[in-house]
Amino acid sequence: MTPRETARMLEGIEQASLVSKEGLEQMKLMLTEQRQGTLRIPHYLPFPDYAVAHKTGDGPQSFANDVGIVTDLGGRSPN
Questions:
Q1: Which of 21, 49, 53, 78 can pair with 69 through a Cys bridge, CB separation 3.0 to 4.6 Å?
Q2: Do 19 and 27 contact (CB within 8 A), yes or no?
Q3: Do residues 2 and 67 make contact, with C-beta atoms less than 8 angstroms apart?
Q4: pTM of the entire structure?
Q5: Which sign, positive or negative, has the C-alpha torsion 22, 42, 65, 56?
Q6: What radius of gyration do the chain's Cα atoms show?
Q7: Dihedral over alpha carbons 78, 15, 66, 25 (to 10 degrees)
Q8: Containing H/E element for 7?
Q9: SS3 9
Q10: How far is residue 37's CA from residue 68's CA, in Å, rounded to a whole number?
Q11: How far apart are alpha carbons 34 and 62 in whole angstroms?
C-alpha cells in the first residue's frame, strides 16, 4: 500500500465514504484505542487538545511508522 493509498483510505474512513456509518464508528474506535508505539503521533500533540485515531506499523528494528486521523477538539483551524 502506498502512502497516497493509505491517505485515501483514511480520508474514506473519516468521510464515511468507504463503509457504513456503523462500520465507520467501529473502525474509528479501534484506531482511537491504539496503544502501541511510545513516540508516535499522539506523543507529539498536546493532550487533551487533540484526538488521534491511528495505526502503527513496524519493520526492521530501526523502522517505524504511524498513520492516522487527527481531530482538533478545540475547534481551531489547522495551520
A1: 53
A2: yes
A3: no
A4: 0.74
A5: negative
A6: 13
A7: 120
A8: helix 3-14
A9: helix
A10: 13
A11: 21
The domain locations on the chain are: 3-72
Residue-wise pLDDT tens digits, 11-54: 988 888 988 888 888 988 999 888 877 778 888 888 788 888 99
Say whether 3 sits in a helix, a strand or coil: helix
pLDDT at 59 (0 to 100): 75
Q: What is the DSSP string of 13-74?
A: HHTTSSS-HHHHHHHHHHHHT----TTSGGGGS-TTTEEEEEEEEE-STT-EEEEEEEEETT
Q: Shortest CA distance to 36 belongs to which of 69, 66, 14, 68? A: 66
Model pLDDT, residue 77: 53
Q: Cell numbers at residue 14, please? A: 473519516
